Amino acid sequence: MLFKKLWHSLLSLFSQITPITEINSLEELQKLSLKQLSSVTALNLDNSNLNSNKRNILISALSAMPNLEILSLNNTNLNPDGMQAIAPSLMNLHCLSLDTNNLGEAGAQILAANLINMPNLHDLSLEDNNLNNAGIQAIIPALRNVSQFRTLNLAINHLDEAGMQAIAPTLSKMTDLKILNLGYNNFGTNGANSLAISLKTMSKLEILFLHGINPGQAGTSALISSLITLPNLQMLNLAMNRIDQAEAKALAHSLSEMPKLELLNLSYNKFSLTVLGEIRAITNQNEIHAIIHKTAPNCRVIS
Length: 303
Hints:
The protein is of the alpha/beta class. The protein is built from 12 helices and 11 strands.
């Protein structure tokens, strides 16, 4: 018994001496002293319901974290008011993830106004936030050092043809980008054409998700043509885009130009079993894992 008490005392003392660099819950956060908070570099509070009291705890803690580089607050009920409250404490971040927080255009405007103070940011995830064209068009031009960006996730944000055309010039400058997720936005043909031009500058891209973007036949052809300029691509998702016979064949012939591709998702498109067999033959030959489901998906579809 005495040994156990002594051991726990030593552990407690050790925890006070050893810098804590990563926190994964609000409970952990509340236990830390100001000195311990100053050493934290990563904070993950995903799926926490940040009501007013908990939000105040977070705001207070963030103000004591000058070395914080990674912040993940996915699905935390942040909303625009929360965005306004935490924004001044985000200056040193390298990675910020705020998926599914209903930020809307108001939250996007708040984030955009503070991005000028975030010169080190190179990973940003804002999936499923109802940002719409106006919100995304506020955020993207406000990003600092876009040529150093590595990850951008804007999936499920009601970005349409006009919005895609508006942000395409900035995307073209993201020459270091490795991960891009624009799935479940309704780009239309012109938006897809603009994106295709931007992709040609992203030679370092490794993961590309363009599922459910409604690119139309011409837009799909433009996107497929741009894929051969991505020699480092490892994962590609083109599911739910109504890709037809001719487009699927063109994609099949392009696969040999993507030597590092490991995973290809073409589920819920329109091509025949004959073309499906041709694609599978090429993917097998190139050791690419192909996901091609033909039945109707039980998930969101852009119409």
